[in-house]
Every structure is written in C-alpha cells, then in structure tokens.
Amino acid sequence: MANTTHPAPKSLAKMKLERTENTVFPHSFKHILSKESVILGIWILLATVATYKQYANQSFNNFLIFKYSYLHASQGLNLYQSYPEYGDINHYGPLFSLLFTPFALLPTFLGMIAWQLSNAFILFTAIYKLPIANLQKAGIAWICTHELLTSQFSFQSNAGVAGLLILTFICVENKKDFWAGLFIALGTLIKVYGIVGLAFFFLSKNKKQFTFGVLFWMSMLIGLPMLPFGYSYIIQSYQDWFHALQEKNTLNATLNSYQDISVMGMARRMSGNASLSTAWFILPAAGLLVYPYLQIKKLENVPYRLLLLSSLLIFTVIFSSGAESPTYIIAFAGLAIWFSQERTNTLAVGLLIFALLLTSFSPSDLFPAYLREHYVRPYALKALPCFIIWCYIQYKLIFNYQNTAKA
Q1: How many helices (H) and strands (E) does the chain have?
Q2: Which of 32, 276, 330, 407 is most buried, most CB within 10 Å of its CB?
C-alpha cells in the first residue's frame, strides 16, 4: 500500500524566512557579500587597518586613557585626573579599569588590535542573534560598517556598547531575563549608556527575573573591582566618576564642542544659545520613547519589538550631550535595524541615503571638507538624519504601526 503520509505544512513565518533567504542566486556576488564569514572577515580587516594606521601615526590617545586607567587603579591613583601620559580625562567607570586588564598587559599594538576586534565581535555577534533572516542581518552589518570604522579610528567602546544593548533585547526575547541584567549592568558601569536597556522591562515576560537579574549583576559588578583594588579606593572612584561626568556634561554644552552632537546640540548651535536646558528636549523625547511600550497588544509582534529596539538605540545617542562622532555606531545600529524592517519604498531608501551621506560619511574624506567644516560640524548636523528617522519610527509605533517587515 502506498505511503500517503504528507509532510507537515510549513508555518507562514518559516515560508517568509525561506523566501527572503532564497531570493539570491547561490553563486551571485550578492550572495557572497551576504555570507557571514565574508562580512566578519571584512570587519576584521578594517579593524586591523584602522589600528595600524593610528598606531603608525601615534594617534591612539583613547587607548592610552584606557590602558592607564588599569595602571592607575593598580597604583591607587585617582582615575579621573589629567596625567602627562595622555590628553583629556578618563570618563569610564571603575569596573572598566578592571575589564581592560588583558588589553593593558599586552604589548601596546597587540592590545590595540585585541581591543578593536573585541568591540567589533560583540556587535557582530549581537546582530547575528537577532530574530530576522540572514539576508537582513547582512544588510544591517553592511550599513553599520563605515560607522564602525569611524568608531575604530578613535578606539572607542561604542560598538561594544551597541552590542550589549542588542544582546539585552535578545535575552529578553529568548526569555533569559536574568542574563539581560548582566548586559544592562555591564553597559551602565562601563559607559552609562547601558542603563537605557531598562526600557526592555516592558517587553519582559518574567519581570521579577528581569528585576532580580539587574539588581544581582549590578551589585556583583560594582563590587568586582574591589577585589584587586580595594574597597575604599573603589568607593572613592565611583564618587570621582560621578563628579567627572557632571563636569563633562557642563563642558559639552558649548557652541564649539566636538561633543554634544545631538538634538540639543543642533538647537544650541543654530540658536547661538549654549544655555538651552537639556530637560526641554529629554523629557518630551522620553515620553515619546516610552509610550509605545504601553501599547500592550502591539508588543506581541516581533517587527514591532524590533522597531522599539531601533528607536532605543537611536534615542541613546541623539539625546545625549556626550554624543560625539564615534558614538554614532550605536545610533546607526538602530537605524540599520529599522531599515531591515521596512518594505522597500522611496521614503525609506531616501532616508537611509540621507543618513549615510550626512551622518556616516560627513566626518570622512568622502565628504566635501568645506561643507563639513562650515556647516556639518558647527551645527552638529550629523545628528539630523538620525533625528528625522527616529521621529518617523515613533510616528509609526504610536499612530500608524502595521506589520511592515520585509516578506
């Protein structure tokens, strides 16, 4: 008798995923560029080239700040004073001084390479754990590539911070809320930005576990540097860190700063009024950010939650007075996730091109120097495309959300 057993029908989501991943001819150039190994290889190559260039030019001040934060902690010195070994002042938390130990102990060039690759790998891993098709993940990675390179030229940790925020979201998605607390604690105690991950509390299916995870990991990581460096020293260091951040925030709000590349920075510089209060911008923006989390029924949709993630990543940068050019890898990761969820249309493509030109390429030699020096930098216009896209995302989330994920 013939076997009449039929295979189980595929779910609609699975058929959509397969259709997305099979639209590329297997041996096409597009298929090669979408391969995970190729993208990772390009990122490793760019990180190595950027590191070598800066090392050859003796232009790696941020790495020296990070390296000496460990060395100064080992000697019981104030982490937030100026020192002759480097320019500027350290603004990373005491935990960072401990976490940077392996990079500080390596020979300088090897430590630099390892540091750059670690940040890139955290972001790369986070992108490839997102609940979307592989072709969409590749698109996100490529959109982020130039902005990642900008961050690497200054040896910033921002790619890693972006990765930690995305990993927080992924843990909540996978019902691993306790571990989401670890990534929030790490991001907060390294560079403060991670604290915005608390917004994912509203997405958590196990809010008690989420809360316990945050409290547990915060207490553990706050105390961890005390083991090698001493209790009293670390308590004093946290107090010094708080004061250093306050001073930095005051210095950022000037009309010619290389920081405050934000919505507030644009308003201050265009108006010529450096005393404009940040609160006038942050409070309404925070309300717009949080409101979509309260639309409970919509939270059941994965594409909607991905838009919430992209909104949070962009918000973290464009409403921060400490935002500088290398910080925008965080916002650009959010922008890329937003675009991965858009159906191809003229508006979305136009906004992406606008952001690539003005936000990503404006600090580089690919952008006209005259426009950069006379318009983009003086008026903090690097923030403008991301702000417009953030407003567009919030409009969709609040008023006009439809399941627009690419089929």
Answers
A1: 20, 0
A2: 330
DSSP secondary structure of 195-230: GGGGGGGGG-S-HHHHHHHHHHHHHHHHHTTHHHH-
* Burial class of residue 188 in the structure, from the number of CB atoms within 10 Å of its CB (0-12 exposed, 13-18 middle, 19+ buried): buried
Q: Fill in the amino acid letter for 214.
A: V
Using alpha carbons only, how large is the chain's radius of gyration in Å? Answer: 22
List CB contacts of 194: < 8 A, sequence separation 6 or more: 161, 164, 165, 168, 183, 184, 185, 186, 187, 188
**Cβ–Cβ < 8 Å for 151, 162:** no
| Measured distance CA(360)–CA(376) in Å, rounded | 12
Cβ atoms of 147 and 329 within 8 Å: the answer is yes
Q: Are 396 and 342 in contact (CB under 8 A)?
A: no
pLDDT in tens, 68-96: 999 999 999 999 999 999 988 999 999 99
Summarised one tens digit per residue, pLDDT across range 242-291 is: 999 988 887 777 777 778 899 999 999 999 998 888 889 999 999 999 99
Per-chain mean pLDDT for the chain: 90
Query: 362, exposed or middle or buried, with CB in 10 Å at 0-12, 13-18, 19+?
Result: buried
Q: Count Cβ atoms below 10 Å from residue 175 Cβ, excluding itself.
A: 12
Tokens 């390294």 belong to 190
Going by C-alpha positions, the residue among 178, 172, 206 that lies closest to residue 306 is 172
CB within 8 A of 35, min separation 6: which ones? 138
Contacts of 317 (CB under 8 A, 6+ apart): 262, 323, 327, 328, 330, 331, 383, 386
Question: For 108-167, how does the pLDDT look when each residue is reduced to its tens digit (9 = 90+)?
Answer: 999 999 999 999 999 999 999 999 999 999 999 999 999 999 999 999 999 999 999 999
- Counting beta carbons within 10 angstroms of the beta carbon of residue 8, is it exposed (0 to 12), middle (13 to 18) or buried (19 or more)? exposed
- 27 band by pLDDT with thresholds 50, 70 and 90: low
Rounded Cα distance, 393 and 391, in Å: 5
Three-class SS state of 276: coil
Structure confidence by residue, pLDDT tens digits, 335-369: 999 999 987 789 999 999 999 999 999 998 889 99
Distance CA 219, CA 216 (A): 5
Which pair of tokens denotes residue 365?
Answer: 């030699």
